[in-house]
């Protein structure tokens, strides 16, 4: 079930990144991981270029942490290879690999002060004290916690501890930064703030970064590319917009953002039928007459009044609906629409405040909505 | 989405390359495993095999020829069995033997004279048969010709066989099997009493608002600090033949079951209290309050909520107490009189009758209740953990004057019992002849005037306890660290964990006897430590390994699992992490382990009673020996020396712990 992009362009032995042509920094090929009978990773292949920020995203138990720990050498994969900077690190112990890691728990040493924590990785034989102290000061300034140097971890807030853990991991200037749900222990506000800070820091240092998360918003806002995983396989790899706009599987469409899912029958490679209504849809390769699921996001549904067309050009897939419910969600209205032509199916659509006012949309009223063909995605029914 | 890609390619699983850390960790784990193998598994194995080894003189295995008076013409060769069939010189009972028994061959010749010119030839019928000429060993089927004078120095060695004969003869000797019944009876009676008393105490301490809780907690730990012989001595002073309160016994004797039960209650109480207290503390307060809001009567609440809530603790405590009573040696030795108990039987068989095989048989029998208790305890620990993880709210007792007074009176009575027994020993140790001559004196502390080892024994005990605390703590903590914080090597870690849990199931007497078998064997490369301080330290560390190991494990489990990966990713060796973080953070647990080992090393009798030598006499054993020799007051005095020492050790421990806590408070404070 490897995604086409990966399947079509398997990791090349020369280590050239498939999309950019730049040399890949981290090359994961055919990774399997079995815990006894249970298989947690099923042939995962992936390549990451230097300086890239990649998120592993997926539901709980899909194998994100397992994949990260394989990269870190903490849980050796059962099969498959990993190359970092051209070097085969597949079976190397963690201490022989080149990465810094931040765990969900931060794992700060509780009996050492903040500066001793950061200095922990720097204290190698021969390195002068002054140099260590200078580097610690530099890192503390980088994460904006210079004033906390003499405190102990328990005396800092969760967000501060998180940044210290980051500073400690970056102290030895590793080639790769691994973050396992670094923000999940924090409350929502701090989390949003730290997202930007981590992203900023990563950009400044240019370090190749892998972050594990099950929070799609986090992934969408931070990642250069997202790796969507499910049941131990990669469903899709792509930029946040690709993942959102062109999900390659029903799972991805469903997992990222909101969707309306409508059972349909394939009529042509760009047409389908829902309850006898023929609709234009995005091009696909499904067999004629096969059962499919049509997917459209609530934000992609365009509102029109019963009389006029609210747009230049000819609308496709224009259908009449009755407004059943409306819910004001601050920046937009979420509506639940019933469409007789789609078998009284309920569609969820998000309309701007502006549109609702202009078109006089109200509960009980009739209106028309357009389901733009290129936004109506079609996926085969799971077997 | 081809299904074909969903099966894993065939082949072997990848194997990690080992880092130098892994190699060192694995090496250390192997070293400590070897320690446990040598100090525990191997001796136990030898003990078990001894218990199924029987010895008897196999007369058919030897052939003898005798010459006439000229010494030249030999008669026909006859087996010793045939000779005995003619003379009946040796009865079948005499053919049963112990490993050390020898049979003089001249007994087969009633007319034997060592001055006669008659010559003898002797040989074994197979290569296993062996005999001694003087102290020189001969073996095999070659004839050996000897004159009469030499022939009288020939003795046959018994042949060995494996079988359950020892057990058969044990179980067909009523005087021996009686000890099983006695031990179980004492165990059951004491258990019932102690659990009832401990439950009351725990209930009062946890659920009332009475005063002096701290003092009661302190007093109830006193019995841990003294050897189990001490309550026996106190009871003798109070109720013995010349006891002050002998009349109160109404004709019954304190020497025997009564003394054993009372003394056992004394020395097992702290252990039961600790377990039951913990169980009560985790009994769910919400349940409790729910019952209160349903207006259930106090009495019903007690039986329907409190007791079931603490049931695992109660069962666990019951098994611990039962095992302690059944396996204890010191107390029944002092006060048991003619009442045979299993642990004392081992001692009698080995030290009294030199019957090592029978000692081994009794040991194996003693292993049964201890092992059973151990497994039940393990099972219950797991259940209780599950109970604990259910979120429970700590119970907040409300003041209730009448209830608090009842609790207070009850605790005061128990405390009085403990203080009385200790107080009697204290008095007896410091007056001329308690209770008849109360002139204060220190003469009872002049241990050099009596047998038992004198002050040297006390010094040895201190030395032994310190060495045990130091080496034991290092071995235990390093071992626990390796098993808890290393990756891979699952087989090794499982084996190690098993070895570390095993000592709990092995009574001290059994361990001691196993050590004799194993170490007192010239063929054993570790034979050199026999009779030295080292074997005492090794046996004591091993004897008290499990509880220490569990303490260390608990502390280590509370530490973040990701410390090691973080250190590895920072390219720092694990030992840097170990010394900079693991040890400092675990220091409270490390101190707890060392004080536990120290206190137990000071008071233990059972394992070391078989292992001390004239240079390594110990205070606790001296108490036993002085009491045995009738020097009861010096025995009490030595017992009190152990008590004082342990109190001081506890105070030092508390002092260090507090200093450390204040010094490290900064990072513990949130
Ligand atoms: N040591 C292990 N032994 C057995 N199964 C394991 C082990 N570690 C992980 N698993 C299983 O492998 C699967 C993937 O686990 P993993 O921790 O990678 O999930 P995850 O994607 O990180 O999930 P979450 O978002 O909950 O952290 C899970 O079903 C988990 O139960
Ligand atoms: Mg995870």
TrEMBL record, chain A:
<dbReference type="InterPro" id="IPR017871">
    <property type="entry name" value="ABC_transporter-like_CS"/>
</dbReference>
<keyword id="KW-1003">Cell membrane</keyword>
<dbReference type="InterPro" id="IPR003439">
    <property type="entry name" value="ABC_transporter-like_ATP-bd"/>
</dbReference>
<dbReference type="InterPro" id="IPR050093">
    <property type="entry name" value="ABC_SmlMolc_Importer"/>
</dbReference>
<dbReference type="InterPro" id="IPR027417">
    <property type="entry name" value="P-loop_NTPase"/>
</dbReference>
<keyword id="KW-0472">Membrane</keyword>
<dbReference type="InterPro" id="IPR017666">
    <property type="entry name" value="AminoethylPonate_ABC_PhnT2"/>
</dbReference>
<dbReference type="InterPro" id="IPR003593">
    <property type="entry name" value="AAA+_ATPase"/>
</dbReference>
<keyword id="KW-0813">Transport</keyword>
<keyword id="KW-0067">ATP-binding</keyword>
<feature type="domain" description="ABC transporter">
    <location>
        <begin position="26"/>
        <end position="256"/>
    </location>
</feature>
<dbReference type="Pfam" id="PF00005">
    <property type="entry name" value="ABC_tran"/>
</dbReference>
<keyword id="KW-0997">Cell inner membrane</keyword>
<comment type="similarity">
    <text>Belongs to the ABC transporter superfamily.</text>
</comment>
<dbReference type="GO" id="GO:0016887">
    <property type="term" value="F:ATP hydrolysis activity"/>
</dbReference>
<keyword id="KW-0547">Nucleotide-binding</keyword>
<keyword id="KW-1278">Translocase</keyword>
<dbReference type="GO" id="GO:0015697">
    <property type="term" value="P:quaternary ammonium group transport"/>
</dbReference>
<protein>
    <submittedName>
        <fullName>Putative 2-aminoethylphosphonate ABC transporter ATP-binding protein</fullName>
    </submittedName>
</protein>
<dbReference type="GO" id="GO:0005524">
    <property type="term" value="F:ATP binding"/>
</dbReference>
<dbReference type="InterPro" id="IPR008995">
    <property type="entry name" value="Mo/tungstate-bd_C_term_dom"/>
</dbReference>
UniProtKB/TrEMBL annotation, chain B:
<dbReference type="InterPro" id="IPR000515">
    <property type="entry name" value="MetI-like"/>
</dbReference>
<feature type="transmembrane region" description="Helical">
    <location>
        <begin position="530"/>
        <end position="556"/>
    </location>
</feature>
<feature type="transmembrane region" description="Helical">
    <location>
        <begin position="641"/>
        <end position="661"/>
    </location>
</feature>
<feature type="domain" description="ABC transmembrane type-1">
    <location>
        <begin position="458"/>
        <end position="653"/>
    </location>
</feature>
<dbReference type="GO" id="GO:0005886">
    <property type="term" value="C:plasma membrane"/>
</dbReference>
<feature type="transmembrane region" description="Helical">
    <location>
        <begin position="495"/>
        <end position="518"/>
    </location>
</feature>
<feature type="transmembrane region" description="Helical">
    <location>
        <begin position="405"/>
        <end position="429"/>
    </location>
</feature>
<keyword id="KW-0812">Transmembrane</keyword>
<keyword id="KW-0472">Membrane</keyword>
<feature type="domain" description="ABC transmembrane type-1">
    <location>
        <begin position="180"/>
        <end position="377"/>
    </location>
</feature>
<feature type="transmembrane region" description="Helical">
    <location>
        <begin position="302"/>
        <end position="326"/>
    </location>
</feature>
<dbReference type="InterPro" id="IPR017664">
    <property type="entry name" value="AminoethylPonate_ABC_perm-1"/>
</dbReference>
<feature type="transmembrane region" description="Helical">
    <location>
        <begin position="27"/>
        <end position="48"/>
    </location>
</feature>
<protein>
    <submittedName>
        <fullName>Putative 2-aminoethylphosphonate ABC transporter permease subunit</fullName>
    </submittedName>
</protein>
<keyword id="KW-1133">Transmembrane helix</keyword>
<feature type="transmembrane region" description="Helical">
    <location>
        <begin position="179"/>
        <end position="203"/>
    </location>
</feature>
<dbReference type="GO" id="GO:0055085">
    <property type="term" value="P:transmembrane transport"/>
</dbReference>
<feature type="transmembrane region" description="Helical">
    <location>
        <begin position="215"/>
        <end position="238"/>
    </location>
</feature>
<keyword id="KW-0813">Transport</keyword>
<dbReference type="Pfam" id="PF00528">
    <property type="entry name" value="BPD_transp_1"/>
</dbReference>
<comment type="similarity">
    <text>Belongs to the binding-protein-dependent transport system permease family.</text>
</comment>
<feature type="transmembrane region" description="Helical">
    <location>
        <begin position="464"/>
        <end position="483"/>
    </location>
</feature>
